[in-house]
Automatic annotation (TrEMBL), chain A:
<keyword id="KW-0186">Copper</keyword>
<keyword id="KW-0479">Metal-binding</keyword>
<comment type="function">
    <text>Cytochrome c oxidase is the component of the respiratory chain that catalyzes the reduction of oxygen to water. Subunits 1-3 form the functional core of the enzyme complex. CO I is the catalytic subunit of the enzyme. Electrons originating in cytochrome c are transferred via the copper A center of subunit 2 and heme A of subunit 1 to the bimetallic center formed by heme A3 and copper B.</text>
</comment>
<feature type="transmembrane region" description="Helical">
    <location>
        <begin position="308"/>
        <end position="333"/>
    </location>
</feature>
<dbReference type="InterPro" id="IPR000883">
    <property type="entry name" value="Cyt_C_Oxase_1"/>
</dbReference>
<feature type="transmembrane region" description="Helical">
    <location>
        <begin position="579"/>
        <end position="597"/>
    </location>
</feature>
<keyword id="KW-0679">Respiratory chain</keyword>
<feature type="transmembrane region" description="Helical">
    <location>
        <begin position="379"/>
        <end position="399"/>
    </location>
</feature>
<keyword id="KW-0408">Iron</keyword>
UniProtKB/TrEMBL annotation, chain B:
<keyword id="KW-0560">Oxidoreductase</keyword>
<keyword id="KW-1278">Translocase</keyword>
<dbReference type="Pfam" id="PF00034">
    <property type="entry name" value="Cytochrom_C"/>
</dbReference>
<feature type="domain" description="Cytochrome oxidase subunit II copper A binding">
    <location>
        <begin position="124"/>
        <end position="236"/>
    </location>
</feature>
<dbReference type="GO" id="GO:0016491">
    <property type="term" value="F:oxidoreductase activity"/>
</dbReference>
<dbReference type="InterPro" id="IPR001505">
    <property type="entry name" value="Copper_CuA"/>
</dbReference>
<comment type="function">
    <text>Subunits I and II form the functional core of the enzyme complex. Electrons originating in cytochrome c are transferred via heme a and Cu(A) to the binuclear center formed by heme a3 and Cu(B).</text>
</comment>
<keyword id="KW-0679">Respiratory chain</keyword>
<dbReference type="InterPro" id="IPR045187">
    <property type="entry name" value="CcO_II"/>
</dbReference>
Length: 618, 350
């Protein structure tokens, strides 16, 4: 156990601890909890959408509200649920996997989290401040520049805040992996989850600036009278689509690659067999990431870019099937000849293979430009990307949560409930989204508030809605499982699965705040497994017991974020009345003041002394 | 438990099969029963890609099933450690090379048809229509013919008709699934696409790009008629007398109200290029009111009285004096008598 948590603390002290923490494990857990909260919000929005589409010409919600629902569902799920939970897992696990005591920049790590959280809060406050954004999560101009009210402004500022946070997080992970790998941890000994964290961070580094630029242009157009996207004044609205998808397509891989990493951890552990084709897995991940930057215009095949562009982007997109196929076969080959145990983590991973294969196949089908002229912007696309994002990313997140829950929270999730939740969710998922491929081809475009009677779309939509309810039930059981586990769950040992292969299983669950008392010596891929096979129950230390240097906590990330948060409101409302600009100045004063304090005040951190460490159990 | 699961599986499979068999979708709306050039091309590629993809899926699932049956940990195997295989170069090359080949099989026909569908060399010798997407209706201007119309696009069967598509406001997307794939209507440029229908009939068109609250209500129709009927329609439409006074007294009153309420500021009858609102020429033969309602006088009155309740966010609401039911009824009577052509949606397919 860590030093601090041995004595009971008051609520205020706990709160202060969380507000100021720079510990990667605490921040990881905070990312996951906040992401889960937004996931529930996005889920409720999804359910409202499905209830509206339960029957033809339904009037459950109005057309305007429906457009707000679809926009918020997409934006919330991508930016504030899937990404943060993945970032949380990366944060909590990756430093442990490379034998590091924390990330390279603990202070920035905290800043990244708070920017994300306040960005999400900002976006969702729009519900209470005159209406949510309603131009779709893609916010295509000129619909988004013409959208009345402040909804889209909240979208712009909310994403800008959280986008800055994500960019900070990505850079932090990159530096951590490059500079802080433990003794003996060469690149080609890194676990696959660390590799995918690394590669996803490269994607973040290069993709997010495109979104930042796009959002700035949109902000200037909406708030300061510029005309980047205004055709009447010589602007061009297609530019937004390019900027958005130059970010947006790599974003898809930012979501899926870490999930691939999670599966690459789980299959070996529960097959008791080393990952098949490790180097080709790393290579395939790089290939996917590289090609991911070359294919953005396949989201724009119907824009009218001409046959040359359409052909190039179509073929480039198909090429991504090759490295993805390599991965699928490598996972199967990992299990081949293994000794497979099936628990909840493994169930989600096993379910991923057929689900994601279907999603990948429809992806290749979408890449065939001629047929895409039919699929594009219909429910076929909705079916496709939910197979990829739910069947890939969300299944990966759920597999990862079941797998690492003991490491994150010190308790093993209840297996029975885990399995029930899985089956209900899994059946619901396929019921919801499989039929949508057909709905699309039968003539139902996406983002339709109502579909008309007698168009042959009734049955499919009803089936889809029933599936959505099953997914809801599955999610509720999972939440009950979490509550039950945190109250009654059994305490987890360091290696609760017994077959852990990577370094995180060599430290207690949850790990002490300094992670490793003595940094471990890594002797190959699957470092912990190697030691176990050699009959050691512990890692060989690479250093004697010495004082451990730790970073100090700080409230400055929170105050900086609050500064930007206040300034964002100033930007949004100065459109109505220039006196709101005062908020911009106040906000920036707080943010820049916090930065000044951070720059001027020397903070050398503190040391946990050798003597204290000796007193703690292993 | 297992018996219950078995029954559930049978139920799911059966209901799924029923779903697939019963529904390829509604005729002349679905893309699964193509009756035009682009739709047929798309269908060919779809079938090819499905064959390729399903074979891959079957192979994956075959290996997957074998793995799950053969390699489960059995009782007493708790301490068994399988051989730690690093990889296998031959296998890895095989499952890299085969997908590359499969991708090529798909890529070549795709590229060929993309270029074929973008070919506009025959445009000068064919019917050309300027299509404008508006929130939330479509305008059609037959180039070189002085014909303006809205919502119902008349085209001759078995002939490539070239559409020059653009938008007057936000981005829309022009999609007639049974005849052809879609292309966006952008505010900054004209996208040219041809459509060719193989059968006469009335086809549903949809807007496929989110364009505001009534995005889902921006339906239109493509009326495909024989060449003779189309030629007759063109003649009729060129000779519309916009000033023609209806015979019936109620309709006459309707015409007066139509003019008095300044409806002409936005709506034209005849070939006037005014297109702030839909052109109302030949309104008696429209397949729908506002794109979605059955063409009847009651629906027309309902629309005139309160368009917002039918198409939220439309540009007509609030831009004309409110009408009494009688006034609306007279105007409806007038519009429903604007019968300018012998060629009607009923001609399609007869």
């Amino acid at each position: 156990m860590s030093l601090a948590s041995t004595q009971k603390k008051s609520f205020g002290a706990v709160l202060w601890d969380y507000l100021t923490t720079v510990d990667h494990k605490k921040l990881g857990n905070m990312y996951i909890v906040a992401g889960a909260f937004f996931f529930i919000l996005g889920g409720i929005e999804a359910l409202v959408i499905r209830i509206q589409l339960m029957k033809p010409e339904n009037d459950f919600i109005s057309a305007g509200l429906y457009n707000e629902m679809i926009t918020m569902h997409g934006t919330t799920m991508i930016f504030f649920a899937a990404m943060p939970i993945l970032l949380g897992l990366m944060n909590a696990i990756m430093p442990l996997q490379i034998g590091a005591r924390d990330v390279a920049f603990p202070f920035l790590n905290s800043l990244g989290f708070w920017l994300f959280l306040f960005g999400g809060i900002m976006l969702n406050l729009s519900w209470f401040l005159g209406g949510a954004p309603d131009a779709g999560w893609t916010a295509y101009t000129p619909l988004s520049t013409q959208s009345p009210g402040h909804g889209v402004d909240f979208y712009v500022m909310g994403l800008q805040l959280s986008g800055a946070g994500t960019l900070i997080g990505g850079i932090n992970f990159l530096v951590t992996i490059v500079t802080m790998r433990g003794p003996g941890m060469t690149y080609m000994r890194m676990p696959l989850f660390t590799w995918t964290t690394f590669i996803a961070s490269i994607l973040i580094l290069f993709a997010f600036p495109a979104l930042t630029v796009g959002l700035f242009l949109l902000m200037f157009d909406r708030m300061f009278g510029s005309a980047f996207f205004d055709v009447a004044l010589g602007g061009n609205s297609i530019i937004w689509q390019h900027l958005f998808w130059i970010f947006g397509h790599p974003e898809v891989y930012i979501l899926i690659l870490p999930a691939f990493g999670i599966f690459s951890e789980i299959f070996p552990v529960f097959s008791k067999k080393r990952l098949f084709g490790y180097s080709s897995m790393v290579f395939a991940t790089f290939m996917i990431a590289f090609l991911g930057f070359m294919v953005w215009a396949h989201h724009m095949l119907t824009v009218g870019l001409g046959p040359v562009a359409n052909s190039i982007f179509a073929v480039a997109t198909m090429a991504i099937a090759v490295p993805t196929g390599i991965k699928i076969f490598n996972w199967l080959a990992t299990m081949w000849g293994g000794s497979i145990r099936i628990n909840s983590a493994m169930l989600w991973s096993l379910a991923f293979i057929p689900s994601f294969t279907i999603g990948g196949m429809t992806g290749v089908m979408l890449a065939t430009a001629t047929a895409d002229y039919q699929y594009h912007d219909t429910y076929f696309v909705i079916g496709h990307f939910h197979y990829v994002i739910v069947g890939g990313t969300l299944f990966g997140i759920l597999a990862g949560l079941h797998y690492w829950w003991p490491k994150l929270f010190g308790k093993v999730l209840h297996e029975g409930m885990g399995k029930i939740a899985f089956w209900i969710f899994f059946i619901g998922f396929h019921l919801t989204f499989f039929v949508q491929h057909f709905l699309g081809l039968m003539g139902m475009p996406r983002r339709y508030w109502v579909f008309l009677e007698n168009q042959g779309l009734d049955t499919g939509n009803l089936v889809s809605t029933i599936g959505a309810f099953l997914m809801t039930i599955g999610t509720i059981i999972f939440i009950i499982n979490i509550v039950y586990t945190s109250i009654k769950g059994e305490k987890a040992s360091a290696d609760p699965w017994g077959t852990g292969r990577t370094l995180e299983w060599a430290v207690s669950s949850p790990p002490p705040e300094y992670n490793f008392k003595k940094l471990p010596l890594v002797r190959g891929l699957d470092a912990y497994w190697i030691e176990k096979m050699d009959g050691n129950d512990k890692m060989t230390p690479a250093e004697p017991l010495v004082d451990i240097h730790m970073p100090n906590g700080s409230i400055l990330p929170v105050t900086m974020t609050i500064g930007f948060f206040i300034a964002s409101f100033g930007f949004i409302y100065q459109v109505d009345n220039k006196s709101w600009l005062a908020l911009v100045f106040i906000g920036f004063a707080i943010a820049l003041g916090s930065m000044l304090i951070r720059s001027l005040k020397d903070d050398h951190g503190y040391h946990i002394h050798k003597e204290d460490l000796e007193r703690e159990a292993d | 438990m297992s018996r219950w699961m078995g029954k559930l599986k049978v139920f799911v499979l059966l209901s799924f099969a029923a779903l697939v068999l019963s529904a390829c979708g509604k005729e002349n709306l679905t893309a699964l029963d193509p009756k035009g050039y682009g739709a047929q091309d798309a269908m060919n590629i779809m079938v090819l890609s499905i064959i390729v993809m399903v074979s891959v899926f079957i192979i994956v699932m075959l290996i997957y099933t074998i793995v799950l049956i053969r390699f489960r940990q059995k009782k007493g195997q708790e301490d068994y450690i399988p051989k730690q295989v690093e990889g296998n170069h031959t296998l890895e090359i095989v499952w890299t090379a085969i997908p590359i080949l499969l991708v090529l099989v798909l890529a070549v026909p795709t590229v060929i048809s993309v270029f074929d569908l973008a070919d506009t060399t025959e445009a000068s010798s064919s019917v050309n229509v300027e299509v404008t997407g508006n929130q939330y209706w479509w305008h059609f201007n037959y180039e070189g013919e002085e014909i303006q119309t809205s919502q119902d696009l008349y085209i001759p069967v078995n002939q490539k008709v070239y559409l020059d598509i653009q938008s007057s406001d936000v981005i829309h997307s022009f999609w007639v699934p049974t005849i052809s794939g879609k292309i966006d209507a952008n505010p900054e440029n004209v996208n040219t696409m041809f459509i060719e229908a193989y059968e006469e009939g009335v086809y549903w068109g949809k807007c496929a790009e989110l364009c505001g609250p009534s995005h889902s209500l921006m339906d239109f129709k493509v009326v495909v008629v024989s060449q003779e009927e189309f030629d007759a329609w063109v003649e009729d439409m060129k000779n519309v007398d916009a000033e023609e006074v209806p015979q019936d007294a109620v309709a006459q009153e309707g015409k007066e109200l139509f003019e008095a309420n300044n409806c002409m500021a936005c709506h034209a009858i005849g070939s006037s290029p005014v297109a702030t609102g839909p052109n109302l020429t030949n309104y008696a033969n429209r397949t729908s009111i506002a794109g979605i309602l059955e063409p009847s006088k009651e629906n027309m009155v309902e629309w005139l009285m309160d368009p917002e309740s039918i198409k939220p966010g439309n540009k007509m609401t609030g831009n004309y004096p409110s009408l009494s039911e009688d006034e609306a009824s007279s105007i409806a009577e007038y519009l429903m008598q604007l019968d300018h052509s012998e060629t009607t949606p009923d001609s399609a397919g007869n």
